[in-house]
Amino acid sequence: MTQIRRESSALRPLPRLDALPDEVIQAILQQLDALTLITISTVSRHFQAVANEQLIWKDLLLQNFRFWDDKHELSKKVGDPSFHDWKDLYAVRHTSNVATRRAVQYMIDEPVGRLAKAQDALEYGYGIKDVLLELNKDASLTDCVLAQRYWSQMVLACLNRSVALDQWTRIRYRTDIANPTETALACLDMFVLGPTVEGDINDTFRRLDEMVDAVRAGTPDLDDQTPRQKAIAIAEFLRAKKWVGIDEDRDYYSIENQFLGLALRSPHRNSLPLISCVIYSYVCRAFGLRAQPCSYPMHVHAVVQPPLPSSPTDPQLDLDNRPLPPDHSTDPFNPDKEQPSDLTHLYIDPFNSATPSTLSRMQSQLQFTAPNATQTQRVMYLLPASHRSLLIRSAHNIIRSVQSTPFDAAHRQQTSDTHNTVDISIYDAAYAALFALVMFPSSAQGLASSLSDLRQHYAHHYIEDLRNYTNHILPLTTGLGAFGGDRGVTDPLVKLIRDEDNTPKKAKRRSELRASGPTTNGEAEAEESGSDIRFRVGTVFRHRRQGYVAVVYGWDGKCEMEERWILGNGVDRLPKGRGQPFYNAFVDDRSTRYVAQENIVPLRPDEFSAEDAERTFPAEIGKWFRRYDSQTARFVSNVRDEYPED
C-alpha cells in the first residue's frame, strides 16, 4: 500500500499580505486609523507606496474632521480631481488639533498667559472646533472636569464669535455674498451657540434647504403656478407646518424667538415676524421668486416680486404671468427699487396669515403706523429692505428683549418643553446685538453709543475675547478719541487686560488677613465677636435668607466694598455688621455675590451631588476649580497658588 506523504503545516509558507493585489491591500488599509496607517507605511517600500494612496487619506480626512475653515477651500478641493495633497492636508489638521489640545491643557495648568494661548489656538481657524467639542465631551473622563470644560468652552465661544465677525466683515465690504440677509442673521446665532455640533451658519442654511425640499415635496405642482399662486401656497404650507409664527402659549418677547438658527432648530419653530419673513423669503427665492422682508414699521412684512426676464429681449411679467403694460416703469439696473405696484409687489405677513395684503391697504396703514413719515420714507417702507437694515432692526429687538427681562432672570433665560430646552445667556444675546450695531452702525452717534456699551460689556464679561475685540472693533474706533487705539497697541483697556493675563496671581493666605498695625473698627468688631474665616475656598453653601446655592472662591477679613454698597445693602443692620468676614461666591456660571459669613449655611455631601454641581455651575467656575469632591461637598481649586491653605 502506497503511503502519501503529507507536508507538515509548519513547513508551509505563511500567506503574505503584500502578495495580495494593491487594490485589495488598499481596501484593507481603509479600515485603519491614521496612526496605524502611518505605522504600516514604515514596514516596507511596498506598503509605503500603498499607504500613501491619496484616496485613502481623503476618506480619512472627511471621516475624522467635520468642521473646516474657509481658508482650506474644502468643497473646491473635493470637486477637483487633480488635487492630490490629501495626506498633507490631513497633517495640517492633525497638527492644529494637537496644538489646540496643548493650549487648553496649558490654560488648565498655568494661571498666566492664558489669553495668549487662546489666541494662538484661534489662529488655526474654524477647524479646531472638532477638537474643542471633543475636549468638552471628554472632560468628565479626566481629573480636571470643570477646568477642561470651562477652557474648551471658552475657546469655542471665542471661535464661534470669530467666524461670525469674519462673515459680517465680508458682508460689510463685499457685494457678491450669496443670501446676505440670512447670513447676517445667522451670525447672531454664533454668539449664543453652546458646545454643540449643530447651530452654526452652515447648519442654518442646511435647515433652510430642508424646508425648501419639504415645500417642494408637499406641493409638487408649485413650479407650474403663477408667482402670486406660488407666494400664497408657500405661506400656506409654512403656516400649516407651524414653521413660522409663534404658538399661542409661548412668550412673544422670549429671547430664542429673535434668532434665525434657534427658530429653525427648536421643535416648535417659534419666531418673531422679522425672522418668519426671512424664512418665508428664502423659500420663495428657491422657487424663482424675488422675495425679501420690507422695513414696514411696527410689523415686518415680506414683499414678493415676479422673477426678472431671463434675457433682455424677454418681456417683464407681472404676478399673474401677464406682460406688464408699456407704461409700467421699471429700473433694469436696480429692479428691487422699482416703484411699488399691485402688478409687481405682493405683501404677505406669514407670521399671521397666508392671505396677501394689497398695496393700497399697506399704504393706508402707514397713515396710522407712521403718520409723520415723508412720502419718500413711505415708499421705502414698501420696498425690499437691505440686509444691513434688517440686521440692525433684529439687534434692537434683541436688546429690547434683554432689557425687558426681569432682574432675577437677567443671567439666563430658559424655555423648556417636552422635546427641547433652550438655554440662552442674556449676556451673550446682548453681546451679539451690540457687536452687530458696532459693525453696522446706523449713524456716527449710534456707533459711539453702541461702542461704549460694547466696551463695557467686553470689559466685564468677555475679556477672553481679546482677539476679536482687537481685530474687529479697534479698527472702527479711528477718530473716536474716547475709545481710540491702533489694534490694541495703545488701547488702555487692551493693555490692562494683557498685563493682567501675564501677571502671576499673588497668594492670599489666611494669616495675612489681619496685617500688623492699627486695627480698623471692623477688625476690632471681628476680634470682639471672636469671628474668623470659617469656610474654605470651594465650599458649597446655601444663603441663609435668600436660599440660592453658591460656591466660595475668595474672601475678605471684613467687608471691603465701597461705602455706597454697604449702605445700599444694609450691611450695618446685620447682627455682626461689616466687621465679619465676607466671601466672594459664584451663584451660577457668570453671576457672583459678596456674602456675609453669618448668611452662609454650608451644604453636606448628601445635600449636593456631582450632578447638582454640573447643573448649577456649568462653566464659569472651571476657571477657578478643577472638579467637585462629592465626599466633602467642596470644589477642588484649579489655581493652586491662589488662596492656598495655611
TrEMBL record:
In what ranges is there compositional bias, type Basic and acidic residues?
Answer: 328-340
The UniProt entry, under Gene3D superfamilies, shows: 1.20.1280.50, Hemimethylated DNA-binding domain
Ranges where the record places region Disordered? 307-340, 500-529
Q: Where is the F-box domain?
A: 14-60
Coiled-coil annotated residue ranges, if any: none
User: Which InterPro entries does this UniProt record tie to the protein?
Assistant: F-box-like_dom_sf, F-box_dom, Hemimethylated_DNA-bd_dom, Hemimethylated_DNA-bd_sf, SirB1_N
This chain belongs to the protein called F-box domain-containing protein
Query: Which organism was this protein described from?
Result: Lithohypha guttulata
